[in-house]
């Protein structure tokens, strides 16, 4: 057995975290992950408070193990979401976040016995999270899916390890036991994986997008800045190719289409859509058309991973998907990772026989 500060703190058998992918890390996947020996995070950052409370209740019934919850302090209903998490402190062992809570909120979680494990993509952010009182940090290198940075995991991970004293979890490019052994050799306490768990039997992603993930090679995965102005790694499908090759007029046409999709799914009026888009332009020099697309980008992702449209939806992915060609159960996946990691660690003399 591979015991690390991560397994000791989270109560899991294997030092592997399943990350909180929006619309993917639902109770079924989180429970399957936790029941197989790893630690799963529920993706509540895309949920309203009522839905989140219902999903936590469902998750409590699906696994006897503790689990994590991911949220953003700027999402609608964030204050209520925090209270729901705290009311489930007997089962919620950890929270994760990107742009996250302040020291006061982190203190409330710690007082409740809930660990704070934010995901960061820069050394300065790791330092800030340590200063705020977080218990661990997950370091995501540029190989990760969705919004990502430019620094590879093999460079960023040792930089952070040399800078902070709290335990560090490695993310970005991991999919197997060799990766876990490598991360532990670097000095991390475990790994976090998103794409690998998305590509499992228990993942709720429909068959067509799953097939697209399996089919994709590394040359079919690209980083785009045209979706919302921030680099995002996604499968280069027909929609992303249109976005990448579009000019100003096409961007406005897509913006209007995205706005209509947002209206349809949320019930917003055009005034609300425009206000949401304008609020995004205030955070940077983002043209209004692009901001409208950014505001509606979650709808484009849902079109793929929820509705199953692999051609007209967006599919975030880590570059590691380019070498994954199967959809195992979480039990088989984690058993293989554990066995392979133990073999590699024994070969390196890091684990006794």
Structure description:
By secondary structure, the protein is an alpha/beta fold. It folds into two domains: 220 residues, Aldolase class I (TIM Barrel, Alpha-Beta Barrel), CATH 3.20.20.70; 113 residues, no CATH class. 46% of the residues lie in helices and 12% in strands. Strands 5-4-3-2-1-10-9-7-6 form a nine-stranded parallel β-sheet. Strands 8-12-11 form a three-stranded antiparallel β-sheet, with no helix packed on it. Helix 6 links the parallel strand 6 and strand 7. Helix 2 packs parallel to helix 3 and helix 12 crosses helix 14. The relative contact order is 0.13.
Largest sheet features? 9 strands, parallel
- Domain module count: 2
Rg over alpha carbons: 20 Å
Total DSSP helices: 15
Structural class comes to alpha/beta
Question: Would you tell me which CATH topology of the largest domain applies?
Answer: TIM Barrel
Beta-strand residue percentage: 5-15%
Which strand order spans the largest sheet, edge to edge or round the barrel?
A: 5-4-3-2-1-10-9-7-6
Global shape: globular
Tell me the name of the CATH homologous superfamily of the largest domain: Aldolase class I
- The CATH class of the largest domain is identified as Alpha Beta
Helix content: 40-55%
The overall average pLDDT, rounded, is 91
Count all strands and give the number: 12
Low-confidence stretches: none
Order of helices and strands: HEHEHEHEHEEHEEHEHEHHEEHHHHH
Terminal CA distance: 10 Å
CATH architecture of the largest domain: Alpha-Beta Barrel
Q: Could you outline the blueprint of secondary structure elements for this entry?
A:
Blueprint: H1 5-10, E1 16-18, H2 27-35, E2 39-43, H3 49-62, E3 67-70, H4 78-87, E4 92-96, H5 103-111, E5 115-116, E6 119-120, H6 123-132, E7 137-140, E8 146-147, H7 153-161, E9 168-171, H8 177-186, E10 190-193, H9 195-198, H10 207-215, E11 221-224, E12 232-235, H11 238-244, H12 248-266, H13 270-281, H14 288-305, H15 330-347
Parallel strand pairs: 1-2, 1-10, 2-3, 3-4, 4-5, 6-7, 7-9, 9-10
Antiparallel strand pairs: 8-12, 11-12
Helix pairs in contact: 2-3, 8-15, 12-14, 13-14
